[in-house]
Amino acid sequence: MQLLNRNELRERIVISGLKATQQRIVVYEALVQQHGHHPTAEEVYQLLKPANPSISLGTVYKTLDSFVETNLIRRVLSEESGKRYDANTMAHSHIYCSNTKEIIDYEDAELEQLLTDFFRKRNMENFEIKSFAVQLTGNKKEPGKQIRISQVPK
Amino acid sequence: MQLLNRNELRERIVISGLKATQQRIVVYEALVQQHGHHPTAEEVYQLLKPANPSISLGTVYKTLDSFVETNLIRRVLSEESGKRYDANTMAHSHIYCSNTKEIIDYEDAELEQLLTDFFRKRNMENFEIKSFAVQLTGNKKEPGKQIRISQVPK
DNA sequence: TCTCAAATAAGAATTTTTCTTATCTGGATA
DNA sequence: TATCCAGATAAGAAAAATTCTTATTTGAGA
């Protein structure tokens, strides 16, 4: 990602649907500059504090949340913080519903096979792959009902 | 997953390399019974407390961590807990190194295309897919050096 | 059964995140 | 440009999540 100047940053924030306040601009700027680094809210706060001594950690949290809501930025999938556990160690994927916050198992042998084959053909230098996972993010249309994913009969 | 009796649970714990204590057995049992539910440590604790009033939350945390370490269970990838943020909203995957805890961007147009095509052919009932992500988990062989993933010239 | 390294309970401490409230500000409007 | 106000922020309290400490207990090998 190319570096963006303040006006470009401002514009993106506005386009996403938020007021371009000073705090939001510097938070977004920090995140763009940290491209590839996936900082935490705390880390963003520490980055900003020297040049913005009056910014508060609460604002950083709130700002990042707003950005995620307007799809200006994303949360990175992580097992690091590791809140949720699963006894099923077989390869399987997960569906995440943004509305209900549910994480639903999604077993799709064809998908696993496709990816296994794909990664078998990739040459990994300095990395030993132990597992892979796919996560689908989206929304249930009817929260009460089940999700069903099937092959389209072609 | 089929239900397991206490002896089967005990055996799996031992095979994974841990002493089969009473607490570990009931924690593992709870997790197996919650198949598909991905409970948090707190939730496991609440499930166990009625029948095991003396178990402590700290033990549940520690036990789950041990299980993850021996690969008896997994942590579920999650953006819910959402510690880390990324300004790059283009479709891209992440590589997670268990050793260094790094999350490294992995852009692979071919992989994205493969999955886009795949999901286009799937019929989703009651789910509107907004995005998907792949995460590779594994280890850097040489922590200092970069990872490089390339196509095998066939 | 005895022994002891390892595991646990209890709760303190720390860290992370959210909430509350008084104050401030971006930008719409006059 | 000055005024206004809904929405944003700072500060810090509060809550929630996680880790740590220490005395006690326990599983399993001798």
UniProtKB/TrEMBL annotation, chains A, B:
Taxonomically, the superkingdom here is Bacteria
Q: Is the Transcription keyword given for this protein?
A: yes
Instruction: Enumerate the UniProt keywords alphabetically.
Output: DNA-binding, Repressor, Transcription, Transcription regulation, Zinc
- Family membership, please give it: Belongs to the Fur family.
Q: What name has this protein been given in UniProt?
A: Fur family transcriptional regulator
Short name of any one Pfam family annotated for the protein: FUR
- Check the record and name the PANTHER family matching this protein: FERRIC UPTAKE REGULATION PROTEIN, ZINC UPTAKE REGULATION PROTEIN
